[in-house]
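TICKET: design request
STATUS: open
ATTACHED STRUCTURE:
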C-alpha cells in the first residue's frame, strides 16, 4: 500500500512541469515578502497571477489574496474573496474567513451580522482567540446599544408627546361617539314622545267631536212642543199665538206624513210606464 502511494506521488511529480513548480514557489515567496513590507498592491498582483494564470487552487493562497485586499482597504473585493473560503474543508481557514467577514460587518455597524460571523469562526476553530475576543466585544457592544435604544425610547419626550397625543385623540373620538349616540337616542325619544302626543291629541279631538255630536243629538231630542212653547213664551209671545203656531206646526207635520203615505199607497197606472 505504501509502495503504491509513493509510486503515485512520483507519477504526479513527473507529470508536473518542474519549471512551473519553481515559478509558483518563487511567486509565493515574492507575494509574501511584498505583503510583509506593506506593498499590498504588488502582493495582490502576484497572488492573482498564481490563482488566475497558474491555476493555483490552494486555499492558503486564496486566503492570502483576500488578506491583501483587506489590508489595501478594498472592502468589496475583500468580502468577495473571503466568502468562498467559509466553505473550505480546512477548519482553520474557514474560521479565519468568518473572522474577517465579522470584522468587515463590525466596521459597517452591522453588529448582529458580525456577531454571527464570529460565532461561526469559533465553531470552526475554538482555538481562534482573535475571533473569541471580537465575539465578546461585539456582543457587549450590541447589548449596550440595545439598552441605550430602550432608554432613549423610554425617555424621549417626543415619543411621550406622540403617545399622549394619540391617547388624547382616541379619548376625543370615544367622547364624540358617545355624544353622537346620546344625541341619536334623545332625538329618537323626542320623536316617540311627539308621536305619542300627536296620537293623544287626535284621540282627544275625536272624543270631543263625538261628545259634541252626542250633545247636539240630545239637544235636538229636547226640542219637544213644550220646550218650543216655553221658548215662544221667552220671546214674549202670547199663549194663544204660541198655541196657534204649535198647532200649525203639528198640522204641517201631519199633512207631510199623509202626503208621504198617499205617495206610497197610490196604485200604478197600467197604461203608463213606471217613469
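STATUS: resolved
RESOLUTION: sequence designed for all positions
ATTACHED SEQUENCE:
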Amino acid at each position: 500500500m505504501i509502495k503504491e502511494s509513493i509510486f503515485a506521488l512520483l507519477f504526479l511529480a513527473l507529470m508536473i512541469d518542474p519549471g512551473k513548480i519553481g515559478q509558483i514557489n518563487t511567486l509565493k515567496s515574492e507575494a509574501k515578502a511584498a505583503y510583509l513590507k506593506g506593498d499590498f498592491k504588488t502582493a495582490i498582483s502576484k497572488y492573482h497571477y498564481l490563482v488566475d494564470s497558474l491555476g493555483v487552487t490552494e486555499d492558503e493562497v486564496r486566503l492570502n489574496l483576500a488578506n491583501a485586499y483587506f489590508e489595501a482597504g478594498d472592502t468589496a473585493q475583500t468580502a468577495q474573496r473571503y466568502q468562498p473560503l467559509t466553505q473550505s474543508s480546512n477548519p482553520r481557514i474557514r474560521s479565519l474567513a468568518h473572522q474577517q467577514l465579522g470584522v468587515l460587518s463590525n466596521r459597517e455597524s452591522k453588529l448582529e451580522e458580525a456577531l454571527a460571523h464570529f460565532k461561526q469562526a469559533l465553531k470552526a476553530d475554538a482555538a481562534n482567540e482573535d475571533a473569541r475576543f471580537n465575539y465578546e466585544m461585539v456582543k457587549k457592544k450590541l447589548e449596550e446599544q440595545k439598552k441605550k435604544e430602550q432608554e432613549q425610547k423610554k425617555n424621549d419626550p417626543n415619543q411621550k408627546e406622540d403617545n399622549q397625543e394619540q391617547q388624547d385623540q382616541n379619548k376625543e373620538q370615544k367622547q364624540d361617539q358617545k355624544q353622537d349616540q346620546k344625541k341619536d337616542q334623545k332625538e329618537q325619544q323626542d320623536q316617540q314622545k311627539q308621536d305619542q302626543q300627536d296620537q293623544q291629541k287626535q284621540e282627544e279631538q275625536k272624543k270631543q267631536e263625538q261628545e259634541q255630536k252626542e250633545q247636539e243629538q240630545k239637544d235636538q231630542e229636547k226640542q219637544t212642543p213644550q220646550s218650543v212653547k216655553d221658548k215662544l213664551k221667552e220671546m214674549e209671545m202670547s199663549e194663544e199665538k204660541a198655541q196657534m203656531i204649535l198647532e200649525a206646526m203639528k198640522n204641517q207635520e201631519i199633512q207631510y206624513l199623509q202626503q208621504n203615505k198617499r205617495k206610497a199607497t197610490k196604485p200604478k197606472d197600467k197604461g203608463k210606464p213606471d217613469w
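CLOSING REMARK: The chain has a mean pLDDT of 79. The CA atoms of residues 86 and 147 lie 32 Å apart.
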